[in-house]
Amino acid sequence: xxxxxxxxxxxxxxxxxxxxxxxxxxxxxxxxxxxxxxxxxxxxxxxxxxxxxxxxxxxxxxxxxxxxxxxxxxxxxxxxxxxxxxxxxxxxxxxxxxxxxxxxxxxxxxxxxxxxxxxxxxxxxxxxxxxxxxxxxxxxxxxxxxxxxxxxxxxxxxxxxxxxxxxxxxxxxxxxxxxxxxxxxxxxxxxxxxxxxxxxxxxxxxxxxxxxxxxxxxxxxxxxxxxxxxxxxxxxxxxxxxxxxxxxxxxxxxxxxxxxxxxxxxxxxxxxxxxxxxxxxxxxxxxxxxxxxxxxxxxx
Amino acid sequence: xxxxxxxxxxxxxxxxxxxxxxxxxxxxxxxxxxxxxxxxxxxxxxxxxxxxxxxxxxxxxxxxxxxxxxxxxxxxxxxxxxxxxxxxxxxxxxxxxxxxxxxxxxxxxxxxxxxxxxxxxxxxxxxxxxxxxxxxxxxxxxxxxxxxxxxxxxxxxxxxxxxxxxxxxxxxxxxxxxxxxxxxxxxxxxxxxxxxxxxxxxxxxxxxxxxxxxxxxxxxxxxxxxxxxxxxxxxxxxxxxxxxxxxxxxxxxxxxxxxxxxxxxxxxxxxxxxxxxxxxxxxxxxxxxxxxxxxxxxxxxxxxxxxxxxxxxxxxxxxxxxxxxxxxx
Lengths: 300, 329
Known about the structure:
The complex is a heterodimer of chains A (300) and B (329).
Chain A: H1 3-38, H2 45-62, H3 67-96, H4 100-121, E1 128-129, E2 138-141, E3 144-147, H5 148-170, H6 172-182, H7 184-189, H8 194-216, E4 221-222, H9 230-239, H10 245-266, H11 274-285
Antiparallel strand pairs in A: 1-4, 2-3
Chain B: H1 12-35, H2 42-67, H3 75-92, H4 97-118, H5 124-144, H6 146-149, E1 155-156, E2 161-162, E3 165-166, H7 170-193, H8 195-205, H9 207-212, H10 217-242, E4 245-246, H11 253-266, H12 271-288, H13 292-309, H14 314-328
Antiparallel strand pairs in B: 1-4, 2-3
Helix pairs in contact in B: 1-14, 2-7, 2-8, 2-10, 2-11, 2-12, 3-4, 3-5, 3-10, 4-10, 7-8, 7-10, 8-10, 11-12
């Protein structure tokens, strides 16, 4: 491979990596905000993402509703589903068992239920495509070719992240959430409504996943298994330290770029393996991730 | 944040009631198991063989999650290593099949020790994700290491031999499968009652306290991983007794979750739970095969409902109900 070609590949890899990375970053953010407050890795995040995509597909393509109804309806559905799961299922699980493992298994149960429901509707049988709402004409940036849709995805994802950061850092609700993440009991003592706070977090996590699904849907073929890209989001979260919000975002972009580079420079067959190797390597060398603080041991 | 299942919180009375029901169930299961080949078809025997393999897989997972409280999500990978290693050994060397099974268990156990050593610095979610990543990577290896595993085409397993006896049918394999399963249950009970088993549980309850009692926590954790993997590898060898074909698709996360579900449904932390959970949930998923369109929903629903209302597992749940009824009288 001569230098000229390598440079073009490099630029293309970064450009495509930023686009897919923004989706991983959104999903990683959705995982991390839950983990920070509930200490639960939500294994159903990918299926929430998938199911939200199908809700939008159903309303937009099959019910032919206008897009200004479809978008808010999908986001509201995702918010309610996740908030109710937290309130009805997980609060009960937490009441009858003290340990983390039971909550984790309950989220695995949710992932199966959501996948089964989507398959049951029959829309998941064949890969389906979601019509693009913005033009897919390509433009050149440097020597990389990207579409207007790509730029929209990146822009919208960054906007969502910025909005969430503002909410998390500068509003009263965000302060309550951070307090719950640090010490739930103390937060409750100063008047934070724990249940409502958890519901809001889980709901928001659902909304972020739904936005990721709406953004990426026109670029991929939708199947009931499309939630498996959540592995890349988990990899991103781990690279970022699993409890750091900026870490999740940076991790998402790193994973996206690495994935595209592996595909361009090594082989498309190795792409599947890349995230798992990334997870293993990061965990073995630096278990707290690139952005995590010192590893603390909570045990007596 | 510790993965524990403290049986200490369970008062002795329901536990006794629970184990009484469980033992009664096991006796019935044993009688059924002995009588089975006399009056059923080959397919039922095949299912029975598979169930017994899953019982052994559950025992392996029980050692690492139930006894030691370490979150391992790579069980299907160790099972797969056992299947491939014993099948290849059986093909390469002309020795009775149990040697191939032992080889499979040893290879899986060695990989388990290695993973356990790598995972020493991790716990909880990190451990779960690292072992998960290892499991997925192993499945990729099974599917892509063409020269050894025959890659995505799957591997044909040659019939198991015991001296001059060649096992060609599920019915022929059945007595051996039962025998090996009983041996593994016995071994697990022995381990659990030994000094090592007590060390496992001490590590589960509190690593700091275990350390204070002079237990080498790091070594105990690595041994737990190795033992669990070896037992899973042995289950892989049992699979090769009656199965003629293995495909990497059946060695993914789904299988790990299936085994985890069995252990949890039976009751995390007890051998009776692991064995009973494998049998009960194995039968449930066999019945669910009749309604494939609802399979995933029911499957997920069972997991969620168990976590909500019976997190200590089926047998503890039944024991509690029996106790309630008795108290009511």
